């Protein structure tokens, strides 16, 4: 049964194009294993399926940890207003789920008072030490920039410019936010 769930998750990763990323003119991304040249101007890279699977499972485990806490918050930092509205529409408040707060202005971060997970989407100019000062210790970052190791921050290497990837990530967050008692 567990093997069937794992293969279904990997199949959904492939079908949602979550492992495809548009190639940059700079050096090849460190997580890509294969480059596809579609035409003269467009090249796609296929990310490592195992690394992407590992990174998303770290996010899933963090969300499941929030479900075990009676008072918990999930902060989603997005600078793009279109993506923020899309996440607001898709992540409707559910009973017994962590409270979901979408922040578009990252210069004014609230001070955390409860157990919280912070997910940063896209390339932001926010410093990780600023998040630690505000009391956030469970941080995930999703972007396609190659960065130095940011200790204490989980990294999901991907470009979230494609609507299909955003919907996949929002559905993943929503499914993990539903408590186990609501799913049965």
CATH class: Alpha Beta
CATH architecture: 3-Layer(aba) Sandwich
- Unreliable stretches (pLDDT < 50, length at least 5) are none
Order of helices and strands: HEEEHEHEEHEEHH
| Beta-strand fraction estimate | 15-25%
In percent, how helical is the residue content? 25-40%
Number of helices: 6
Please give the structural blueprint.
Blueprint: H1 2-15, E1 20-22, E2 32-37, E3 43-47, H2 49-68, E4 72-78, H3 81-90, E5 99-103, E6 115-121, H4 128-133, E7 139-143, E8 153-157, H5 163-177, H6 180-183
What does this structure look like?
This protein is an alpha/beta fold. The chain has one domain (49-183): Rossmann fold. 38% of the residues lie in helices and 23% in strands. The chain is built from six helices and eight strands. The strands form two sheets. It has a five-stranded parallel β-sheet. A hairpin with a 5-residue loop joins strand 2 (32-37) and strand 3 (43-47). Helix 3 packs parallel to helix 5 (163-177). It is globular and about 45 Å long. It starts with a helix and ends with a helix. The mean pLDDT is 75.
Question: Outline of this structure?
Answer:
The chain has six helices and eight strands; from the N terminus they run H-E-E-E-H-E-H-E-E-H-E-E-H-H.
